[in-house]
Design a protein that fits this description.
Layout (H helix, E strand, L loop, with lengths): L6 E6 L5 H9 L3 E7 L14 E5 L4 H12 L6 E4 L5 H11 L6 H6 L3 H10 L7 E3 L3 H10 L4 E5 L9 E3 L2 H11 L6 E5 L3 E11 L2 E12 L1 H7 L3 E5 L5 H17 L4 E10 L5 E7 L7 H9 L3 H14 L12 E9 L14 E4 L5 E8 L2 H18 L1 E2 L9
Parallel strand pairs: 1-2, 1-4, 2-3
Antiparallel strand pairs: 5-8, 6-7, 6-8, 9-10, 9-12, 10-11, 11-14, 12-13, 14-16, 14-17, 15-16
Helix pairs in contact: 1-11
Organism: Winogradskyella eximia
GO molecular function: ATP binding; ligase activity; metal ion binding
Keywords: ATP-binding, Ligase, Nucleotide-binding
Length: about 400
């Protein structure tokens, strides 16, 4: 007897998650996509999508009413947020329709940087010293106790968007006053120079079943604010820092109540002390083509496996990881001064992926040697810098 297909409502107000949609369809389920009308010309995997619902802008009540209307004839089994900015909105929808999955409280830990830090601190996970911006005396006490530089961060933005570096108490108050009535949506934390790592993982039944540690060779903050070239590479498997971050990532997932799905978590290793600190996490696959880099190194497609985990969970079936490779991969991506840069002169056999996006250039390499990956990335970065690179100022906030 064949199993009844499940109905997935996938929400994405940005163009992403194509592999998730393809994988759900490949598993024999139905896909309903809720996205913005302006994204209707994007190359979604239309052959995998059973129906698409468009909105102009997100209005929580209108979206809930629209889904309720569709629910009359389609029995949705799962709501999935494919982008960081949709996590909390979809958590509210789950609570309204009593859907399984992450509710608003848990979703907050994966979206709100202040909630993340407070929960991590409460659970004994190392975080940079921080404070909210609610109370004037608290801000003064923090500025007197913790030496600058500091970072002011929006609580709800993704990546390095909206982050400002602050060098003095006067400058801090200038920025806080400029924020006016928006200051409660920000926090300030100690800026500690160091290496920034990301752990990209999969979680099943409250446990981390797969995680790969990588290091940003140029941090997203540096790239966004300095117009640099984005690079990341797999960390040496079994090294002290890799083992430390695997353990720390598992602690964060447990503390935040992650039950199943994909996660992308960032940490920093202090240059001064070597100490590891938790920075932030998200209940999604990492952006900037990091999923392609992780797949090149490990053979694990994070989007596809996340889809399989969701389906297995709904079916109450045991999820089984695919075979894992222990190779090393690295990525380099830059804005290009050419609309369609010619990358035919990049011919090394280690290249497994080239970016096809207007005004961008990007490559992923894979090797059995982490040293070889780093050597290639250094070489390509120098070439891209001379022959292709262009830069734009960082956005103040998301669109």
């Amino acid at each position: 007897m064949s199993k009844q297909p499940l109905n997935f409502l996938c929400v994405s107000t940005y163009f992403k998650g194509e592999d998730f949609l393809k994988s759900v369809k490949a598993e024999g389920h139905n896909i309903y996509l809720l996205t913005k009308k302006k994204l209707d010309k994007e190359p979604w995997p239309w052959e995998s999508i059973d129906d698409t619902f468009y909105i102009e802008e997100w209005n929580q009540n209108d979206v809930a009413k629209g889904i309720a209307y569709k629910f009359r004839t389609i029995k949705f089994d799962r709501f999935v947020a494919l982008d960081d900015f949709d996590v909390e909105k979809v958590a509210l929808l789950r609570e309204h329709f009593r859907m399984p999955g992450m509710g608003r409280t848990t979703a907050h830990y994966f979206r709100d940087k202040l909630a993340m830090r407070m929960k991590a601190l409460e659970e004994g996970v190392n975080v940079p010293e921080f404070t909210d911006l609610f109370n004037n005396d608290t801000i003064n006490a923090y500025a007197d106790r913790v030496s600058p530089p500091w970072l002011i961060k929006p609580r709800m933005e993704a990546s390095a968007t909206g982050i400002k570096k602050i060098h003095s108490k006067d400058e801090l108050w200038h920025v806080v006053n400029e924020l006016g009535d928006e200051r409660d949506n920000y926090l300030v934390e100690k800026f500690a120079p160091g290496d920034v790592y990301h752990v990209d993982g999969l979680n099943v039944d409250g446990k981390v079943v797969f995680a790969r540690v990588s290091k940003y060779l140029d941090t997203p903050f540096e790239v966004a604010h300095g117009g640099g070239i984005f690079r990341s590479a797999s960390s040496k498997i079994g090294s002290k820092v890799e083992k430390g971050l695997q353990k720390m990532n598992a602690s964060v997932m447990k503390a935040f109540g992650m039950q199943f799905g994909a996660s992308h978590t960032e940490f920093i290793q202090s240059k001064a002390t070597g100490e590891l600190f938790f920075l932030e996490t998200s209940s999604r696959v990492g952006g900037a083509n990091l999923a392609e880099m992780v797949e090149a190194a490990s053979g694990v497609n994070l989007w596809g496996e996340w889809a399989r985990i969701e389906a297995s969970n709904l079916r109450k079936e045991k999820y089984k990881l695919p075979k894992i490779n222990n190779k090393y991969a690295g990525i380099v991506v830059s804005l290009s001064r050419f609309e369609h840069p010619d990358t035919s002169s990049f011919t090394d056999e280690e290249i497994v992926w080239k970016m096809h996006k207007a005004w961008h250039i990007g490559l992923i390499v894979v090797s059995d040697s982490s040293e070889r990956v780093l050597e290639l990335l250094d070489h390509y970065t120098e070439r891209i810098g001379k022959e292709f690179h262009a830069s734009l100022p960082a956005p103040d906030k998301s669109e």
